[in-house]
Structures are given as C-alpha cells and as structure tokens.
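Whiteboard transcription, Tuesday session. T.W. wrote the structure tokens on the left side:
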C-alpha cells in the first residue's frame, strides 16, 4: 500500500510516500480501505520530530480517516465489509489501508461524503471530549475558542451554538472573522488588533476556554474567566511555558486542565466516539452543523497539504484524497 512516512524529521519535503505492507487486523480490530485522511497540526509536529506516536503505533502519519470496511478481526460485531466509516486513530491515516480498534470505527453520518467524513473524527472527538465531557459546557454558558477559523475552532463554534452556548472566538483576519460569524460566533476578536480579555470581561467572563495556544495566553485566559470557569489546554502553538498567577485563578475559583486525545486509552476513545454518534451525528445529518473543508489535496501532494496548514491561510480542515 502507499503510505506517508518521515524518513528524517524536517520540513514538508521530508514527507515520503512509501510502499509498505498492508496492516492486518487483530482481535477486536477493523481493517479499512482508506478514501481520505484529515490533516491536523499534530501531524506537522510529528513530521518535525516533536510528537512521536505512542509505543507500538505505526510511524505512518494521520490521526483520522474515512473509508470502507474491508476486514473484521476476531470478535468484532456491529460492522460489516462494505460499510462506510469514520476512524479515529493514534496514527496511520495517511495510507491506503489502516487498522483500528473497533470502538474507534463508526458509521459515516448519513448524507456525508467520504471526503467530508475524513474531517470529522479527530476534530469532533477533541472538541466533544474537552468542551462537553471534561469542561461540562451547558446551555447558557459562554465559551472562548482560540483559533476560530481552524478545524478545531470551526467545529467548536458550531457544536457550542447547537447546544445553546454563547461563543467568543479569536481570529487573525477580517476574512476569517466573516466566516466564523456565519458559523454562529457571537463575538469575534482579531487578536492582531484587539484584546480578547476585554471582550470576555464585558460579557461577565466566560465559563469555558478551549485553548490551542498554550503558554502565551495563560494569564489572559485566566483573566477572561467567569467565577468557576474552566480552561482546557489542547495545544501549545504559543509555547510550552507561561506564568500562572495562582491568586487570580483562586479569585475566580477557576481550574485548568491539559489533555491529549492521541494518548488516551482505547476504552476512552471508544466512549467518546459512541457519544458523538448518539448526540452529534443527528445534527450533522439534519444539516445543523458539519465539517468545514478548506481544500482537498491528493496523497501524492501531501507536502502541499502541510504547507497550507503552516501558512495558516486555511479555514477549517485540509483533507488528503488517498485515492487520488
């Protein structure tokens, strides 16, 4: 099979489309013929040598894909060869065939193409597990999302609005601001020009912060909280270290959590995917929300897909067409 690996950590040109043996499913696993794979910032970090896969996981890049079930491992029920599926992965999605635990393989939402479906698993599982399952966002709460035009951001805005929250988000341009307003964002801050803390404080503070920036925004995130607010850090684009004023956090009776979806146990990932199918898939199927796909790139041009993310010129997700 064709698959994308990194022979030496580096820039986009270090990505190599290699010929590798097809993986075979073990007990409790499902083999999927991949149609498309989502491209995520974690893939860029892995390419650079900063985010290696968990022990025992393939070096092939890719944390999500869509495709068609080809083969079932021993003990797998509820799926059949020929089923169109979305797959949440710890690695391996940039390939023509992938193997995953059965709980991380779920039906594609009705009416969704395989290209669009490739942009669902990682982003939706990340937002759902952090904003709703961990931080407990409820109807009437206020959510601050950094990077509102990203794959995570466009997903978080739509999900939060669908469940009755008010959304504040940051973006880097007026063009992106227009997009996130159309997705439902209530307040949009151009971080190059304005202070998101002031916007949040004018609203009485936010209940949840979903942060992909990390250290650079730590103090500002705390200042943006309402009483009892929760910060969930899922990325470090703004650095690994920041100064935390514990007095300010105590005054807010706030909390901070930092999580990574990739390293969670299989059982946790299966529970997240099951909740998505139950509570979110119907909203995708009726058109209430859905993935925003910026561009589809052939697997042979995987380096170009990584360049698009590095330029931050995209809105939503970039998808690799593995069949092209």
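and on the right, the sequence the group agreed on:
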């Amino acid at each position: 099979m064709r698959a994308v690996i990194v022979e030496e950590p580096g820039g986009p040109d270090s990505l190599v489309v290699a010929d590798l043996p097809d993986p075979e499913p073990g007990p409790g696993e499902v083999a999927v013929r991949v149609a498309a794979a989502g491209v995520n910032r974690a893939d860029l970090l892995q390419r650079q040598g900063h985010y290696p896969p968990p022990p025992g996981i393939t070096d092939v890049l890719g944390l999500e894909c869509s495709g068609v079930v080809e083969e079932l491992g021993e003990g797998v029920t509820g799926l059949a060869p020929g089923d169109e599926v979305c797959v949440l992965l710890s690695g391996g999605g940039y390939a023509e065939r992938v193997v995953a635990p059965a709980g991380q393989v779920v039906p594609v939402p009705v009416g969704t193409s395989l290209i669009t479906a490739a942009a669902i698993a990682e982003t939706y599982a990340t937002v759902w597990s952090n904003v709703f399952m961990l931080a407990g966002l409820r109807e009437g709460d206020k959510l601050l999302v950094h990077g509102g035009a990203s794959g995570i951001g466009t997903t978080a805005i739509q999900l939060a609005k669908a469940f009755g929250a008010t959304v504040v988000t940051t973006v880097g341009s007026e063009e992106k601001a227009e997009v996130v307003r159309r997705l439902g964002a209530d307040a949009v801050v151009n971080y190059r020009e304005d202070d998101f803390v002031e916007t949040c404080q004018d609203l009485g503070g936010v209940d949840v912060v979903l942060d992909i920036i990390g250290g650079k925004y730590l103090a500002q995130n705390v200042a943006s909280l309402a009483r009892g607010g929760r910060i969930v850090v899922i990325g470090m684009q703004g650095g690994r270290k920041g100064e935390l004023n514990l007095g300010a956090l105590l005054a807010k009776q706030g909390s901070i959590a930092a999580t990574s979806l990739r390293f969670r146990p299989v059982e946790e990932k299966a529970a997240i995917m099951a909740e998505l199918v139950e509570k979110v898939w119907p909203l995708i199927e009726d058109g209430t929300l859905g993935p925003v796909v910026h561009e589809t790139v052939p697997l042979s041009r995987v380096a170009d897909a990584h360049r698009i993310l590095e330029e931050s010129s995209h809105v939503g997700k970039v998808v690799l067409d593995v069949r092209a």
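Someone added at the bottom: Residues 2-120+264-321 form a domain with the Quinone Oxidoreductase; Chain A, domain 1 fold (CATH 3.90.180.10).
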